[in-house]
Amino acid sequence: xxxxxxxxxxxxxxxxxVFATYKLPDWLPADIYLRLDPLLGFNAVFAAREIIVRSLxxxxxxxxxxxxxxxxxxxxxxxxxxxxxxxxxFFWKKKRPGLKSEVNFRKIKFxxxxxxxxxxxxxLSLAFIMDPLALLTRFYTFFLYPLAITLxxxxxxxxxxxxxxxxxxxxxxxxxxxxxFYMSIITLLIFGGIIILNRLAPxxxxxxxxxxxxxxxxxxxxxxxxxxxxxxxNECLKCxxxxxxxxxxxxxxxxxFSECIQCRTCxxxxxxxxxxxxxxxxxxxxxxxxPIHSSRRGFLYSLAGGLxxxxxxxxxPFTLRQSKFQxxxxxxxxxxxxxxxxxxxxxxxxxxxLTNTLQPCLWE
Length: 364
Hints:
Elements: H1 2-18, H2 32-36, H3 38-48, H4 58-67, H5 72-76, H6 78-91, H7 102-121, H8 127-130, H9 132-165, H10 169-172, H11 184-196, H12 204-209, H13 211-219, E1 228-229, H14 238-242, H15 265-269, E2 275-276, H16 296-314, H17 317-324, H18 336-342, H19 348-352
Antiparallel strand pairs: 1-2
């Protein structure tokens, strides 16, 4: 069931991306996944210092996580679905070395989250660098979309003699403009790196690097659905080995609830059927409540780092260049200062541009 829901979510994400150029019903915006992203929403609100109506959609995911738990990562997130499907394709039944100091690696995503949020407080938008939905949308825009157009045109060229033989004039002259983006190779390398890291541990990105997962893990232990292990458990540790997030402790009856994504993989592999996910209002059921993998010193360092970096970036020489060189933004874009604070660099405007005029920029 989880695989089906993941596939359905990824299909919906892809369909909305394809139709981003066209008018959709008001109740189904093409960027609905980006609107539902709490990290992008909080980042935009803090950076812009005002309530952005579209960001309020993210309250749906926040509320659902408070009720259910960290289900988004296992069922809805298209980046998580892509990682799972490609992991099955490339690393199925491959022995993975794992990480010895896993607890220390888990801290990374929380430090990244603190840096991104603290930088947004001083007006610097950085969430787009690490947010999974923004990353995947850029990958679709800069790599998959141009690749798909190339393959379609090659297919049309192959069938063109057939179209001409049957007198199908429209099809015989059909050709789609080929989009080209400057950062396609960089985007491919970043996405490829995320997938290659799975060779070390399942869902490496989700476990150790994803700041959106870190944000959801802060509130997921409050969810009503919690993993519970009964007395039939024989401590075979199959659940611990199968858990894609490493949420099962060395004692299989204990669970790191902040890391549990409600995938129920542990319940499927349990030979004793000792694992269930009942509704619970208590932290203790199914194991002790596990604190967030962070430290006071790391929190302070990350907070200070984000604030300092945000302040220096806002006062850097690039700020002077922004006023000296007038960039052409997408039609309807808000003023430059507000634009840089709220743009999430997803690339959907570039995909929607029919003339391939809009391009990503780095230091301009």
